[in-house]
Amino acid sequence: MIFSTPKEKSRFSGYYTKRLIHTGEKSLVMEATRKSDNARVAIKLYMKSYDRTARKLEKKYKIPSEAEVGMMLNPGGQEHKDSRLVATLDSGTEYDERSGARYLVQEFVRGVTLKKLISCKDSRLERNLRSWAGQLCLGLKEMHSKNMIYRDMCSDNVIVCASGRIKLLDLGFVVPENIKFEEKGGTPSYMAPEQVAGMPLCPGTDIYGLGIVLFEMLTGSLPYTAKIPGDHENARNMRRKDLMRQHIEAPPPEVPEKYRDKDPVIAGIIPRCLRKDPRQRYEHIDAVLEALDRNNDIL
Q1: pLDDT one-digit tens code per residue, 139-173
Q2: What is the CATH number for 232?
Q3: What is the pLDDT of residues 203-219, one digit of tens each?
């Protein structure tokens, strides 16, 4: 889709939109160019209904907006070559109207999601398993160093560039640590037990999500699944509830024996990441990095 009308071109002050990249429940993502220097960027526009919800949560919990989080994680709105987080460059309100929805301008990242590579059984997964695991840890470390929790560590939120570099996308759920949420925000297959239970969030919450992603990368499947058929809303809600119940009640998953020799280090890290009690997981993300590396240059 090419936006070519004068109205569309002025939709976002200072940017020309080119094509639609992604449509989701929360937002649209478009490729665009910056008028000042013709640089390629991505614009994430909230759906109006989600924007209203996000504003309410920000007010209720006194938490920063996604734009504020993005600028906090990369001060000055600059793209950092060493960062494993998508850079937030600018923000605004659609059409510069109070009634418009908010949008973010982020660096344009060309690549494919980790979820897609896993579903396609891409050969790059096995070759880069340890390196990508380390890069995921570095992305979480950037957030945790600012006392922020990702809250949605899942393979759909990880993009793999052609160079093999990892970037963590979607900062919309990032919040200060120790907050308790009544709302069960996150991706059900990856939510830590304390997240499901509405308990305070901590770095261990993200380490749990990391453990799920590592399990998925190593085995090609998720440790918890809900066998409830149907694509109607009631079935989707039942699957969501069943997955959340499993994170709290089901025994911690074991890595199947046939995958343990594939990468014994990763296979050994996963069980500790997935312990129900966050105090029994790795204390911090550096401890996971140390377990991954062991004097090997994995990054």
Answers
A1: 999 999 999 999 999 999 999 998 899 999 999 99
A2: 1.10.510.10
A3: 999 999 999 999 999 99
Q: Is there a single domain that holds both residue 208 and residue 286? A: yes
The three-state secondary structure class of 108 is: coil
Structural domain contains residue 298:
no
d(CA 11, CA 101): 11
Could you count the other beta carbons within 10 Å of the beta carbon of residue 11? Answer: 21
**Is residue 259 within 8 Å of residue 160, measured between CB atoms?**
no
Are both 136 and 37 inside the same structural domain? no
Q: Give 246-299 pLDDT, tens digit per residue.
A: 999 999 889 999 999 999 999 999 999 999 999 999 999 999 999 998 645 444
Both 161 and 289 in one domain: the answer is: yes
Q: Please list, residue by residue across 78-101, b when 16 or more beta carbons sit within 10 angstroms of its beta carbon and e when fewer do.
A: ebeeebbbbbbbbbbbbeeeeebb
DSSP 3-state of 232: coil
- For the cut 90, the answer to whether the pLDDT of residue 1 exceeds it is no
Radius of gyration of the chain (CA): 19
Q: How confident is the model at residue 81 (pLDDT cuts 50, 70, 90)?
A: confident
The Cα–Cα gap between 275 and 285 comes to 15
DSSP codes joined into one string, 85-104: BPPEEEEEEGGG-TTSPEEE
The total domain count for the chain is 2
d(CA 110, CA 2): 19
Report the relative pairing of strands 148-149 and 175-176 from DSSP bridges: antiparallel
